[in-house]
Design goal:
The complex is a heterodimer. By secondary structure, chain A is α/β, with parallel strands linked by helices. Chain A is 27% helix and 27% strand. Chain A has a single domain, classed as Rossmann fold, CATH 3.40.50.2020. Chain A starts with a strand and ends in a 6-residue tail after the last strand. Chain B has twelve helices and nine strands. Classes of the chains: A alpha/beta, B alpha/beta.
């Protein structure tokens, strides 16, 4: 089974533009909005959303970076510890509308961990979730507020999101799950 | 990931899914001689993440819920032990402190017996300080838990060296080519020994300075196994141009043992004073593992001066130990 491209660079650009408008529309203003990118690929997505919103609202949107690894529920079932990087949210989240941004929504466990991580930082007014791809197979009662594209997928497939900031190209593709090594 | 000895300016390009996850090889932390530069980099990066937690209003994350840490100290300690304790608590691990009188371990078996008891208590990590060099290495062969050496005899104090390196990185961009001068009782200092391993591995230029009775023999003519350092008995030469000056505690009993004529003479010839420090690099930082004998190995004006990062070292110690707990307990270590 070969790789199948689902979204091209132009698709991703249009989708991000649409989500930017949806965020503003839904929240009626941009005043209290903070975008928080979930490491790794949520970070460039959050930055792109912010610069989009800034371009038509003429207001600076703060962008934070969240590493939720410390809140994962599968830490001790990993064979090796995960590399963790810093959370960088250098502003108060109290009373703010936090929009969590991630590339793929799958089981919902990352979003659960991110929710806990944000709540440890303060008491936001609300937390919303924006994802580029929703591939289904939720294991927790979690849904996204903004979805770029719904991609029904099999658990035997992987959704590969590549972004220029991290991978030199903008592209979303379905690939067969690589077999376990060894 | 290329090991660079840096924590700053990590840009997005560095965030590709890393084989870095395969870097970590340690089940125990006994000394830094068997650490690869990539592993040290990983510890520094993880520490940076932990450091951010310490700046939060609620300094607690649920990462190690259900894990048990036991501290087993056969030697006195204030900051190291409480630093480990706070680190474990910040990660939501359970911690139990065992106090042992030093007399009960003169026989090898009783140490192992104690460890077997700890094992039966269900410890995942044992933090151990012992007056005999190598005791943690022995311990690591007898328990399933991970052992962290919190200081053994004259041998090693790896967590101190890692927090020292992290503190240097907070002030300097890179460890590579950094001029680090360590002054004081080198021969008895496990802090100096571990620091020499970690600093030379990351490319620092290390100078050690002490009266010849407090310098290990053969350091100026190193064995292939041991890292190369500059050795001098001249403190002015040692400090000149240094980026980091690290003082070590003069263990006052050394005078009785005949290694020093008098404490007064030592402090006159080897004290880190403002005047001597003025010959160092302009941005020099002054470090000390503590506890400090003020006005013996270091002038109190220097220890509390604006170049001193001694209190930062204590804070950073908690972050480094959180990082190590995470790296040891974060995986299941199936081998």
């Amino acid at each position: 089974m070969a790789k199948k491209v689902i979204m091209t660079e132009a698709d991703i650009k249009r989708t991000i533009a649409r989500i930017s408008h949806e965020i503003v529309e839904r929240n009626k203003s941009t005043k209290n909005i903070i975008l928080v990118g979930m490491r790794t690929r949520g970070v460039p997505l959050a930055k792109r959303l912010a610069s989009n919103i800034e371009s038509f609202e003429e207001m600076k949107i703060p962008v934070g970076i969240l590493d939720f690894s410390l809140y994962r529920d599968d830490i001790s079932s990993q064979d090796i510890p995960l590399v963790i990087k810093s959370t960088d949210i250098p502003f108060s989240v109290d009373g703010k509308v936090i929009v969590l941004v991630d590339d793929v929504l799958y089981t919902g466990r990352s979003a659960r961990a991110a929710l806990d991580a944000i709540i440890d930082l303060g008491r936001p007014l609300s937390i919303q979730l924006a994802v580029l791809v929703d591939r289904g197979h939720r294991e927790l009662p979690i849904r996204a507020d903004y979805v770029g594209k719904n991609i029904p997928s099999s658990k035997d497939e992987e959704i590969e999101v590549r972004l220029t900031e991290t991978d030199e190209i903008d592209e979303v593709a379905i690939i067969p799950k690589p077999g376990r090594e060894g | 990931m290329e090991a660079v000895g840096q924590i700053k300016a990590i840009d997005l390009k560095d965030e590709k899914p890393q084989p870095a996850q395969k870097i970590w090889k340690h089940k125990h932390i006994l000394d830094l001689d068997d650490f690869s530069p990539s592993e040290i980099d990983l510890v520094m990066q993880t520490t940076e993440a932990m450091h951010e937690i310490l700046s939060r209003p609620i300094k607690k994350v649920p990462t190690l819920r259900g894990k048990t840490v036991v501290t087993l100290f056969y030697e006195a300690s204030t900051r190291t032990r409480s630093s480990f304790e706070l680190a474990a608590k910040n990660l939501s691990a359970d911690i139990s402190n065992l106090t042992v009188s030093s007399s009960s371990v003169t026989k090898g078996e009783s140490l192992i017996d104690t460890l077997e008891t700890i094992e039966a208590l269900g410890a995942d990590i044992v933090v151990m300080r012992h007056p005999y060099s190598g005791a943690p290495n022995l311990a690591s062969k007898h328990v399933k838990a991970s052992i962290i050496n919190a200081g053994d005899g004259w041998h090693a104090h790896p967590t101190q060296a890692l927090l020292d390196m992290y503190t240097m990185l907070k002030h300097k961009n890179s460890i590579k080519n950094l001029k680090v001068t360590i002054i004081g009782d080198i021969i008895h200092s496990r802090v100096a020994h571990s620091n020499i391993w970690s600093l030379t591995k990351m490319g620092a230029e290390v100078t050690i300075c002490a009266p010849s009775t407090l310098l290990p023999k053969g350091m100026d003519n190193p064995q292939p196994y041991f890292p190369k350092v500059n050795v001098t008995t001249d403190i002015d030469k040692a400090i000149k141009g240094a980026d980091v000056v690290m003082g070590l505690r003069l263990q006052l009993e050394r005078q009785q043992s005949g290694l020093l004529p008098s404490i007064r003479e030592y402090s006159r010839l080897y004290q880190i004073t403002e005047e001597r420090l003025s010959k160092a690099d302009n941005d020099v930082i002054v470090m000390h593992p503590g506890p400090v004998n003020e006005d013996v190995e270091i002038a109190s004006t220097v220890a509390h001066g604006d170049k001193s990062v001694i209190n930062e070292q204590v804070t950073n110690g908690v972050a480094v130990r959180m990082a190590l707990f995470y790296l040891l307990a974060g995986g299941s270590h199936n081998e």
